[in-house]
Amino acid sequence: MTISTFPPDRNVPLPAVHYEPRFQAEMKSEEFDLTSGLRLIRRRLVMIVAVMMVLMAASIVLISGLNPSYHAASRLMIHKPLATALSTGDAGNNAPVNVTSETERLLSRSVTERIIRDLRLDERPEFNPALRQASVLDEIRATLRGLLVSSDKPSQPSGDSIEPIIQAYYKALSVWRDGQSDVVQIGFTAGDPELAAAVPNRLISIYLEERKDSIRGSLDTAQAWIGQRIAEQQDRARAARDAADTYQQTMGVVQSGDEQSEQVKAIVELSDRQTKIGQSRTDIQDTIAALEAARDPSLAAQNKAVPDSIGAMQSDLRAQQQDLARLLDIYGNDAAAVVDLRARIDRSRTDLGAAVDRYLQSMRAKLSTLDDEDRTVRSALAAAYEQRSRSSLAQTELGRLQRIADREQTALDKLEEQRRGLAGQAMLPGTELEVLSPAAVPLAPQGRSRLFYLIGAFFASISVAVTAAFVVEMMDRTVRSFDQISGMARIVPAGFVPHLRRKDRRDPSRLFGQTQIGMFDEAIRTVMISLKQANGGKLPNSIAVTSAHSGEGKSLVAGSLAIELAANGTPVLLVDSDIRRGHLDTLFRSGLKQGLNDFLSGQAGLEDVVHHHPSGIDFIPAGNPRLQRRMRMTDVAEIIEMARNRGQIVIFDSAPVLASADTMHLTALTERTLMIVQWAKTSRRAAEFCLQQLRSARNADIVVAINNVKPKRHAKYNFRDSELYARSLMKYHDFKM
């Protein structure tokens, strides 16, 4: 910086000038376009390149470890044998083959173990992990597994176990069904092309052998089972037949049709005889009733069949009665002929009555005989019916027993038929396998070349790196522009202070010397102008420089402001008011043993702690940090009053706002407060909270400056104030980092 030796007269009145803030912050909606994306990639290019290099290094290690692999495949068709399909003896043989089940047979454990044993896969490091040399990645993986897997879990199988070989075999093998057809494809991938072709072909042959042995074993088991069932069924059929024969012999069941006809004929004859006896009894009973009911023997049983003798006597008696009637008409009752005739009629009637009585006695005797015969016929008929009923029941039971015997025999016949069917199946193959295309030795490895994978890894690493850059950018909540804090009320943007190289920060001669530091000097002047604008066009008499956290560059800015004011001939008093961790004395190297802490504790006077620097700056160091007295309002006011009496501008390098309450008291007494926000470090939340604390202490606008800005990186953002570090302006200042 250039220090003016002829300072202007501060008492000369300045013309009225209307100041407008140089940095006017307005709310701006977030916009993202192609330019913003390109700017983001530019400013995160180092991170993107680093992530790409890490990913590419890992990809190169993995891709270099890839070995060429060869893949061979065979196609075959599995279906039911033609002879089985033509068989009509057993409908079960015509069921279609389940290709899915046959596919699972190809993947069975027994087939796998035979292939491993026949082709000696256990002697190849490709399939036997115990024969491989552990790589760096394997060791890292094993270490991580040992850290993550608890000790109580079962240990890994030993090197002699076949399980790792089987797992590697299944990874290399592929067996699938081609759509809904009966075609099955078998593929195998290996580092040896001959092995890749040998496995599918050997798998087919082993499958046929295993299938044949399985069917033979199943048929043998089925035949043994059906033989046992047949023997049991024969015993049941024989027992059923013996039971039917024994019942027939015991019950005397009639089996011939003639004997059954004779039984029916006897029952019919007895029934007819009973009917006739009933009719005869009815006729005799009617005759007896008619004879007994007639008073005149000559009229008795006229309508019934009577013996001829009684009929003749009845005819004679009627003739005599007719003669008596004629004689009575001729001679009268007293005639001798009439009397004689009446006497003969009386004798005839007496004889007829005696004959009728005898006939009645004979008829009653015949009725008694018919009753006896009827009882005899009834008894014989009941016996015939009973015998017929017993014969029918016995015949029904015998028929039931015979049907049981027939069912048992039918079941036995079916079992015999099944045994014959099994014997026929034993002579036929279980399935027919037609190899459509056997596996041939592949001539070239499968997959892409290593160059293809490297190119893919390169583009994938670019995508991951750019995505990571976007994620980091979205998660960034630090202050990088006034556009980001424009929504905070009552702040005055004071500009950006660019990053100062470390050798310049640590070399006081660079700050106090004649060499200007380009953009940094311009930034300090801009901050000073902003302080004037915020104070109505004149420099404030007292300024408190603070920040939200420590290490944000407030001491550097405070010292630089003091140096700039001194260079312009303005008397300055710089106070290191961070009484706990103040280190501003490293810049001035005052050599004083006492400072602000000693003044506040009363161990030194105010004049004793002021160091007069050759640059024209009066400096008060922090002093003994072990004293750490609280800053009182009267002490601060005394310092400000002393500076006013001397015509000096006092600048306080205070402690961070969020770390010490003394800063709140200090900002309440000073005219202006300058808050330093470190670019890409101070979070927006911390800045907002700090501003809120400062506004509660002093109801005035807060001047904010963003410190430690990386110009080249800030120019890559899409903020409006990024134009301050455009390439032309940086070239103008010949800025170098």
Instruction: Report the total helices.
Output: 23
* Cα radius of gyration in angstroms: 69 Å
What is the mean pLDDT? 81
CA(first)-CA(last) distance: 18 Å
What's the story with the biggest beta sheet?
8 strands, mixed
Structural class: alpha/beta
Biggest sheet: strand arrangement: 5-12-11-6-10-7-9-8
> What is the oligomer described by this structure?
single chain
Strand portion: 5-15%
List the uncertain runs: 1-22, 24-30, 87-93
Principal-axis shape: elongated
The percent of residues in helical segments reads: 55-70%
Total count of strands: 12
Structure description:
The longest helix is centred in the middle third of the chain and has 91 residues, at 336-426. The protein has helices at residues 34-43, 45-64, 82-86, 99-106, 109-119, 136-148, 163-172, 193-251, 257-293, 308-330, 336-426, 450-475, 502-506, 508-512, 519-534, 554-567, 585-588, 596-600, 633-645, 662-669, 684-697, 711-714, 727-732; strands spanning 70-79, 173-177, 183-190, 432-437, 491-498, 542-547, 572-576, 611-612, 617-620, 649-653, 672-678, 702-709. The chain has an eight-stranded mixed β-sheet, with helices on both faces. 55% of the residues lie in helices and 10% in strands. α2 (45-64) packs antiparallel against α12 and α5 crosses α8. By secondary structure, it is an alpha/beta fold. β11, α21 (684-697) and β12 form a beta-alpha-beta unit. It is elongated and about 220 Å long.
